[in-house]
Amino acid sequence: MPEDQEREAESPARGEGGLPEAREHLRIAAMRPVLDTPRWWWPAVIALGAVVVVGLAAWAVQLADGLGVAGYNDRAFWAVYEADLVAFIGVSYGGAVVSAILRLTNATWRAPLTRIAEATALVTLPIGMLFIVPHLGSPQRIWELVWPPYWNLSSPILWDFFAVSTYLLATAVFFYLPLIADLPVAAARMAGRAGVRARCCRLLYRAVGGEREVGASKRQLIEGSIGLVAIMVIPMAVSVHSVLSFAFASSSRAGYAETIFPVYFVVAALYSGIALVAVAVAALRRLFHLEAFIHPRHFVRLGFILVGFGAVYLYLTFTEYLVDGYSGTTDNAAWVRQVLIGRYWIPFWFYFVAAGVVPMLIVAIPRLRTAKGVVVASGLVVVAMWVKRLVIVIPPATEPLVRSPLAAGGVLEGNWGSYHFTWVPISITLAATAAIPLLLLLVFRFVPILPIAEMEELESYEQVLTEAIEVTGGTTSLSPGGHPGGRPLIPPASACAPVVLPPPGAGGGGFDLSLRADCWPPHGHGPSGSTGLPPFGSGGWGR
Amino acid sequence: MTGSERRDAASAEDRDVLDDVQSANRPEREPVPVTFGRRGFLRGATIGGLGIAATGALGYAFGASSASSASSASSATTAGAAGRATHQWAMVIDLRSCNGCKLCTTACQAAHFLHEDQTWIDVFTMRDASGKHYSMPRPCMMCEDPPCVPVCPVQANVRTADGLTLVDQSRCIGTRICMNACPYQARYFNWSKPRPAPRQPFPQEPAWPVPQVEGTVGKCITCAAMLPAGKLPECVSRCPMGVLYLGDLATDVAVNGIGTTVKLSEFLADNDAVTFKESYGTHPRVFYIPGSGQALDTDAEAG
Ligand code: SF4
Ligand code: SF4
């Protein structure tokens, strides 16, 4: 690739200031999406943009002809847009909370993932919020939602509105705070560049306050704020998804009136959110050559978290269906029956296989527990959890409420309303899906894709430990408790050998995760392995 | 007949109409304090729910003040006197004589220029425990404690002083959460362009939402705008069987479309009237007199 060569040619030249070479390479990698335009960039953006445009056109058709063209009717008054709303706001949870939880638990391995995770949260949340527009029958009057004289504060919809708006603010702040320390680095890299975009970048960096290096005291302040926001983001996200569920759960409708819903929605959001983070990280890692910093074991870690939430979600689903079905009251029994063996069995069992069983098997079977396996599982989870949202939203909305249970074709069998997919909601949903990578590509046109300051700081920390270990004879495993992760710090010089990870927190009896630490440097560019550098990231980022 | 005695005494005097409503027609249940129930609960829940939003307190003050203004404005459009309503509308549906002809449905649709699937009064085929089919018309129940009202984010649902739940289609934004909340499946959305309507005697307003507005919710209005003029709702006047009665809890009278006038409370008590889905706590103002109607074909497929 010519760009690669070019980059290689100029990168050492820009490493003035005597940075250690490893840090220099971190900065290059983090700024790569900003500085370089790979050949695929424009075609990808144009293709994704086209999908978004088709979605907008579909929405225009819906505006002109009414919600009916989206397959809605009085016997299916909520369907795909409501599921989209829940699903897209849900996936934004993953990014924010994964990053927040991992920060708070001081899981150092998170570092290379946080920027991507937070950016994913930042772009998916507004997309999810935008689904309120096609969802509304009269979007031209949407201003009434922000017009206090019209507010009806006993409405769950308004609670949603407040909660999600607050959460959006928090997500933006959570994205911005760790960025502050990186902006001067980015600005410095941008300095010599000409062109409109470089100028825009510089303007942007100046506007959001980062051209000068961040001093130590300010950095401390920022770190304190990040901690604070990380703490705040978790209850906020929990409340958002709980409140989202109230719009359903606060009714008298069987299948919606579930006390389990708030928890159910929160767990579903985490589950699908982590899956989306894994997919986004995998894609961006491949596209922007971040293999030196993001290792297969990152995915395996994400995979463990993923199946953890997947198991909880499966359990909640089981509980809900068992209790409702067992009670045998007509409404509940009819609803559970329709989902399990009635008209909704295909989407439900699809969820069960694709987001219930398969991801767990993938992570459970050592041979499948690889980066690729986890990414496949995550992709399945993202899709299947969207389908599960349809299974949550549509059946109760099509429930017959005035049928006599005794009448022929009573509530157990027939008389259900039905929702028919049309091209309009499908296009709009696809457009929203395409908007996620599109916006991510755009965001990383302006901000470093890796949290430079955070990684450097943790690297210094790791460095100390590394040296300590080297003194003790370069053992490749550190006893648990000696380090937050309790895992080997340095992949040996033959860096592509399998790494044996002891289970976190357990002493001895480690099991082979069959991971391969990535060769560093990746793809043969950058300094060759023979420089004997302590490879950047070899010490820390894998953990 | 303790209920009717109480009411007889009341009707002679110039008593508070709402007290009257409380005591009328509810021999089986103690008068419920108005502040108790769904609305009271929601007010409490709202405050809790808004703990998450910094804007809560401010908004609550706004919301509370505008709620009162909205309801007084709408009551002025339907109830003649401001403040005290002279009527408390209700409906009686005598299932014993419904033959399922659906003339009520079509008359309603013609009067309000509705699409065919907008069955504001729908007639369902039910089956009783003896295997007999009967027809059950279902208008809006005009619930005393309507779950559809508090869920609207923009206060487009109003409950008028004379006991009707109406939709302000110039404000409805179409979230359809009220369709979710209604346990009677009584709400219908305008999924496409409404049927065009000629000039109407009344302007489009909650009490006479003709023509319908695309992208908003519509439902049975008990022909609210016709009542002050002394006209019966379309379905009531068109029912050939005299199944449907318009009732007034305040004056304790009910009238059907074939000229029968009854004393409402006595009629209900004598015929063991019931309300639909009582356990939902909605306190419907539509009373059903049970029975399985005309001899229907017991093998008929349910609709
Ligand atoms: S209520 Fe009257 S008009 Fe309506 S279906 Fe029954 S008989 Fe026919
Ligand atoms: S029947 Fe339904 S629409 Fe009518 S007042 Fe009751 S809850 Fe509202």
List the topology elements.
The complex is a heterodimer of chains A (543) and B (303).
Chain A: H1 2-10, H2 21-35, H3 41-65, H4 80-104, H5 111-130, H6 132-135, H7 156-180, H8 183-190, H9 196-207, H10 216-249, H11 261-287, H12 296-327, H13 330-340, H14 345-364, H15 371-397, H16 423-443, H17 452-471, E1 498-501, E2 511-516
Antiparallel strand pairs in A: 1-2
Helix pairs in contact in A: 3-16, 4-5, 4-10, 4-11, 4-15, 5-7, 5-11, 5-16, 7-10, 8-9, 10-11, 11-12, 11-15, 12-13, 12-14, 12-15, 14-15
Chain B: H1 2-12, H2 17-23, H3 38-49, H4 56-78, E1 89-94, H5 103-112, E2 122-127, E3 133-138, E4 157-159, E5 165-167, H6 177-181, E6 187-189, E7 217-219, H7 234-238, E8 244-248, E9 253-256, E10 261-263, H8 264-270, E11 286-289
Parallel strand pairs in B: 1-11
Antiparallel strand pairs in B: 1-8, 2-3, 4-5, 6-7, 8-9, 9-10
Bound molecules: iron/sulfur cluster (2 copies).
Looking at this protein, list some descriptive labels.
heterodimer; A: 543 residues; mainly alpha; Formate dehydrogenase/DMSO reductase fold; 2 domains; 17 helices; 62% helix; disordered C terminus; B: 303 residues; alpha+beta; Alpha-Beta Plaits; five-stranded mixed sheet; two-stranded antiparallel sheet; disordered N terminus; binds iron/sulfur cluster
Structure report:
- The complex is a heterodimer of chains A (543) and B (303).
- Chain A has 543 residues and is mainly α.
- In chain A, 62% of the residues lie in helices and 2% in strands.
- Chain A has 17 helices and two strands.
- Chain A has helices spanning 2-10, 21-35, 41-65, 80-104, 111-130, 132-135, 156-180, 183-190, 196-207, 216-249, 261-287, 296-327, 330-340, 345-364, 371-397, 423-443, 452-471, and strands at 498-501, 511-516.
- A two-stranded antiparallel ribbon of chain A has the order 1-2.
- The longest helix of chain A is centred in the middle third of the chain and has 34 residues, at 216-249.
- Chain A is globular, with a radius of gyration of 25 Å.
- By secondary structure, chain B is α+β, with helices and mostly antiparallel strands.
- At the A-B interface, helix 7 and helix 10 of A face helix 3, helix 4, strand 2, strand 3 and helix 6 of B.
- The structure holds iron/sulfur cluster (2 copies).
- One iron/sulfur cluster (SF4) binds next to loops of chain B.
